[in-house]
Amino acid sequence: MSYSEKMLTALSNGQIETANKHFAWALRKDDDDTLYSLAEELYGLGFLKQAERTYKKLLAKYPEEDDLRTSLADIAIDEDDTDLALNYLEQVKPDSSAYVQALLVEADLYQTQELFEVSEQKLKEAYQLDPDEPIVEFALAEFYFLIRNYHQAVSFYLDLIKQGQVEISKVNLVERLGVSYAEAGRFEQAVGYLEQIKPIDLTPDSQFELGFTYLQLGEQQKAIDMFNQLREQDSQYASLYPYLAEAQEQLQQPDQALLTLQEGLSVDQYNEQLYLRTARLALKADDPELAEKYLREGLSIDPDNLTTVLELSNLLVQQERYQDNIDLLDQYLQSNEFDPQFYWNLAVSNDRLDHFQAAKDNYEAAYPFFEHNKDFLKPAIYFFREAGMIESTVAALRNYLAIEPDDGEMVAMMEDYEEQGY
Question: For residue 272, what pLDDT is reported?
């Protein structure tokens, strides 16, 4: 048994001190091929310092072997030493047999720095030089998958699978292709590949994508079954809960959907969108008190979420809690953060509380946004008429009758104004 083998055996047994002794002897006594294999094993196991020492020893003896430089660059990237990595890579010239590999490593380096355009250029150059190399195609596929360019990723994953490649670097290419199809909105193709994966090989991500794909294809029960399977395997997978609830709601299971979202909130307590969806389901279940609870909890997490503010405002108006609505919305108007519906809701609230000037100001502020909305125009017409605002009343009447020409009451009112010369 070589010293390298003895070292690896000691490592597998957790005997670090013994492994270090064997490593020192391996550097002195083992042949170069054995040392190269040792370096590869050590790198794969995460013993970067030892792998680096081994590669450096070999590079000193074989300075023309550029693949050693690319391996050392890989280690430098893992250790966040960008300058050292680039130094190794710049020594690999275009006429070197390791140049394509160097380009791949360099692309990886730029990805870690989020310089995606530069990374893409390096990968494309590698592909032009060696378009038949599966590792190059795989690197391009993974790059496009990373930056969510799923249409591009599909073409490379599909080509690799056609070549008979189903797994590279422990990545299941069938799964990647299925996920890419799903994320690109091509659900029919996605399900065909995701269903090929053996249940035992389904990762949480692929389970989620398959459930999501079933949901998009209108196969709600399959989606529910898959999301439930994922929940049993990983209850902390927060993304599953909104979609499981959506599938349950589509199958007319609102109570179960509400419980699902509540469970989701126990997993993801800072997701304001989840609070909003839970509140909406509570309203459908005719539980406005519970809905208000979740809306206010959502606002405590993100006070600037105007959608949640508006949902709460609408609820308060429906409950005729006009002063509560005014108190809620005034703080947003003062900070110049508003939705036009805020003006409408404030107009109604102030009108009901006989706050004439505030109601007038808000009806006038809302009017340009809702001048073609019949639900807004009718109460506005009554307010304008009672306030003696004849021009505003007539203008609102004309807009309303353009939408509802058969409303007898409004027709009669308009005729009265026309007889008066308006």
Answer: 87
